[in-house]
């Protein structure tokens, strides 16, 4: 078996590498004006969606402009700056732990909880202003409703290719296993993507790669799993 698995794994690695390089070139050539227009439309779709409005606890990535990720600033601000008439939402955002694909999702309640690291990436401190450890979503007493994830390449079946670090696949596997063990309702896995990031051919994936339930594009919300079709409103592209 080893003689078969070895070449297969290497082939998959090379396929993903080529796909990432091609998409990075595509994103570099994607006009800034178009990107900003799509950022605005994508965030509007999320903020106006019933599945977002009804969520009470979410994980969301903090977008990095240098990586040309779909902007999440308005979404994050909306969660953190709710007024007294709105039901408060609990927010968890990512913090890289090490270079071994370990990442945690930590609870924040204000933009002041976020700092910019030496690489220009916004993330939460491990401790709050009082020096107390921030709560990890893996330690929470209840599940999150929605998980907004980034990615580099997607197809219309929900397959996702990240940037190669494996952080989200490792975290999602851990979290989904926790949900199963606790017998919790599974969260909706939603990816935000520019139009150029969705490819026609199937994205090559390994058994450990976690697909998403839905894509949010500038053109609308695209549920791709049966789970998403049942849970989400009929916001189709």
TrEMBL record:
Keyword Metal-binding: yes
Enzyme class at the top of the EC tree: ligase
Pfam families, per the entry: 5-FTHF_cyc-lig (PF01812)
Keywords: ATP-binding, Magnesium, Metal-binding, Nucleotide-binding
Residues reported in the UniProt entry to bind ATP: 16-20, 160-168
Cofactor(s) required for function per UniProt: Mg(2+)
GO molecular function: 5-formyltetrahydrofolate cyclo-ligase activity; ATP binding; metal ion binding
Matches recorded under SUPFAM superfamilies: NagB/RpiA/CoA transferase-like
Binding site for substrate: 62, 69
Recorded catalytic activity of this chain's protein: (6S)-5-formyl-5,6,7,8-tetrahydrofolate + ATP = (6R)-5,10-methenyltetrahydrofolate + ADP + phosphate
InterPro entries, alphabetized: FTHF_cligase (IPR002698), FTHF_cligase-like_sf (IPR024185), NagB/RpiA_transferase-like (IPR037171)
EC number: 6.3.3.2
PANTHER family: 5-FORMYLTETRAHYDROFOLATE CYCLO-LIGASE, ATPASE INHIBITOR/5-FORMYLTETRAHYDROFOLATE CYCLO-LIGASE
Family: Belongs to the 5-formyltetrahydrofolate cyclo-ligase family.
Protein name from the UniProt record: 5-formyltetrahydrofolate cyclo-ligase
Organism: Riccia fluitans
């Amino acid at each position: 078996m080893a003689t078969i698995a070895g070449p297969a794994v290497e082939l998959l690695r090379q396929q993903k590498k080529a796909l990432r390089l091609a998409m990075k070139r595509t994103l570099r050539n994607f006009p800034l004006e178009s990107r900003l227009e799509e950022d605005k439309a994508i965030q509007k779709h999320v903020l106006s969606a019933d599945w977002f409005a009804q969520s009470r606890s979410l994980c969301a990535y903090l977008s990095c402009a240098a990586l040309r990720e779909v902007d999440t600033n308005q979404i994050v601000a909306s969660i953190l700056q709710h007024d007294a008439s709105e039901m408060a939402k609990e927010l968890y955002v990512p913090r890289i732990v090490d270079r071994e694909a370990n990442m945690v999702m930590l609870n924040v309640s204000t933009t002041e909880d976020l700092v910019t690291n030496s690489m220009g990436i916004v993330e939460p401190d491990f401790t709050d202003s009082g020096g107390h450890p921030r709560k990890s979503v893996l330690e929470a007493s209840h599940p999150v409703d929605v998980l907004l994830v980034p990615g580099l390449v997607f197809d219309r079946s929900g397959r996702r290719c990240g940037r190669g670090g494996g952080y989200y696949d490792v975290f999602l596997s851990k979290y989904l296993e926790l949900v199963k063990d606790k017998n919790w309702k599974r969260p909706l896995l939603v990816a935000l993507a520019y139009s150029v990031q969705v490819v026609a051919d199937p994205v090559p994936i390994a058994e450990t790669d976690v697909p998403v339930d839905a894509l949010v594009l500038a053109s609308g919300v695209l549920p791709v799993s049966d789970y998403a079709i049942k849970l989400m409103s009929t916001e189709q592209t």
